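Quick one, T. Sequence first:
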Amino acid sequence: MGPKTLELKQLCQKLGRKYVGFKGDPRSPIWLVGEAPGSDEDQTGVPFVGSSGRELDRMLAEAGIAQSLCCWTNPYKVRPPDNDIDRIEEVGITKVQFEEQFFEELREYKPPFLCPVGGTPLGILCPDTLDSRDHESKISKWRGSILRCDRLDWPNATIPNFHPAYILREWSDRAVGVFIFARLLEEFDYWNQNGKHQPLPERELIANPSFGETEDYLQECLNYNGPISCDFELLARRVPICLAFSFSRRSALSVSLFDGDVSNLRTIWRLMDRVLHEKRIVGQNWTTFDANWAEALGFYGGVDRCDDTLVRHHVLHPEMSHKLDFQGMQYTRQPYWKDEGKGWNLKEGMPKLKRYNCLDAAATLEIFEEQEKEFDEKPNLRRFYEDYEMPLARKFHEIDKRGIQTDPESLRTLRKEVVCELDDRCVFISKDLGGRPVVYSAEMANSLARQLGTDSKGILNIASVPQLKNVLKNELHIKLKTDRYTKKESTGEESLNEAFAATGNQVLKHILRTRELNKILGTYVDAKLCNNVFYSCYSVTGTVTGRRASRKTFLGFGSNGQNQPKHSDLGEKFNSVFIARPDRIFVACDQASAEEWVVQGIIADVSGDVKGIRELEESIRTGISRHAVLASAIFGLPIAQTNNKECLEYFLGKKVRHAGNYDMRENTMAAQLAAAGFPTKMPFCAAILAKFHEVEPNIRGVFHKYVEHELCTKRLLKTPLGRERVFYGIRPYGDNSKVFREGYAYIPQSVIGDNNGLAILFCQSVNPGCVLADGHDSMLTEVEDSFDAVLTQMKLLLQAYDRIIKFPNGFEVKIPIDFRIGYSMKGLKKCPDPSKETGCRTTYNSLQPRPSVQLTTTSGAEQSQSPPLSNETSGLAESNVL
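Structure tokens:
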């Protein structure tokens, strides 16, 4: 026993504190290092014996690490007050005393492998991992990295992992934790067999090449038979400054785009363009980021032959993070490096940035090569990626450049209306709060304070969470929902809607409306436009279900066009600003009762009960909605009364069906109804949900049971269109209700999203340039303003959605689509099936004459040009399983 250990034990005895030492043999090669003892450890005097320790043992065993190889300890040997590590010194012992004793132990036994579980022990062992801003080690960055503790003078490998207490809270990360322990075992096996630690990857990163080195490397890229990894780096996220190339995971070269002799640059740029033209390109997020910058600089974007590691990972591991740092941890032995791209300046830090640029390119190529091995083991997922997901990403690269035309005058009018209503809502809130000044932004608060000649403390900025929380709790005495992650009272939309449903307090209604107005103003109405065109950048990796997400473009134009408000009054007003281009017309379609077809298809496939499917078919034939039939059964009203979309009972029937299908809780349903302007008490929601399940017993009895069985036995859900997702959050014990609810939504939402994606892929391949937007279950297209063009486009859309969806036991459905046409998004008119040509012509003629809109600038030009893509999706409209 060393002197520091003896001194600490004596001090603990003097202070009446329990000293908690080792579990296992300290001569073991692997040390698991935690933070400090908990209550169970404090009672027994042994570390890692509570629930966290038992889970840690299970994870080690699952990874194949024998208990005999391990020793468990903590740097802080005494339990802190309330298990709060930040209060450890309140026990009467300084952190320095604890840490000196801990390092004395390490030097005595010299373990070759250290596994800090959690950020606290990682920061002690590897201070270089501490974040410069808050001086904490982020385990979410460094987990799985193979590091060295430089505070120790013998060869060691330090491999951090999540703390088991975190795993018990966030079970979906448990698989990652087990993976990291398996990596630890691989490193140990190498050490055990070779008598030394496995060296880290050696890479030749050419960050400051000469003209000759650059020319030679690019020529090697051109001569190489395999794919070339490329990666752009930007200055201040605005200006592309260097471009890295890698043809081997062991080397990369970064080219300064604007630094050097002009004639040399001309030669290098031509070589780079040849690489992008001639080679198969590998990139991380290439289709939505790097390719756009390449084209903006005049290079060929290489989209038609690129492989995007982000898209690949989304197919292989949809539940995981797809960021490059996570993939780097999963597929390579490269320690976390992504912070190396920060903290440099243009004058001094270019070599640092370019080295980081090289490392990104080399690691991306290594990731690609390892993903190839994984695809070889999973040919069905390779087919899904190569036949659908990557071609769709390429098509969206084209679609992103088209955008939707806006009417500037309508946009100005809408902005005035939104700002006016925002001001009015603030006045309403102010009156309810006794005349206190109310604003909706920090800028307004400061401006008003200057006008009043005072500070802003007496002004309520409802965009400020602390101020809003204080008013709601202490002035209006409203109970707020506790966030399950932060464990703090929430002022989020769901929390405020639940409070509004429970209290009916009009201040909450005004606050919620103000937020809605503020969002549409900042996100949509004030979005940056180019030639009065609203752009969006679509990502096929947007959601875990496979439905796309969208955001503003790489140049900052537009916004999230996919999730813009559609069904509220603000959505209607915002839609009015979108117009077809001159001599063009919108043709839109959506999948009718989309997700319901999938839910009832599963029920029919599993149980043989086709009642729901027949009702869906009957609703198309008769025009009597299933929502109306459900509302009639729940509320005891005649269908003639409930089959009216303006009827409140119809609205409730639609809402309760969606809520019941996905096992929504009454509090969540109440919040959603409140958000729609109908504050409803939770007991009422509970009652109509119970009635729904009485009317629709197959939802819980068949659909939910099927999903639960698949998750509990396989942890895997596979859709009829070939998408797969492993639900890592399923626990072998404990409450799985939240994961089950994710599972209920997964197959319907994924099938509808992929049915839409396949249709978009088909349309954009057959009629390039026609698709403007993806709406999850709908599509917006634009064609020549003639009846023949409209009819042709509608027939194309019918062909695009002409897809049999076949469930595992053989039951088949085909989801019908509805059409709308018009010159404005707000004025779209429902149009009959194109087989009824006379009705279609009547609808088309009713749109004439075309509205006259004076545009201030020419619109419709694409932001950048890209080469035509090959028709790699021929025949996809008829495909079923990818």
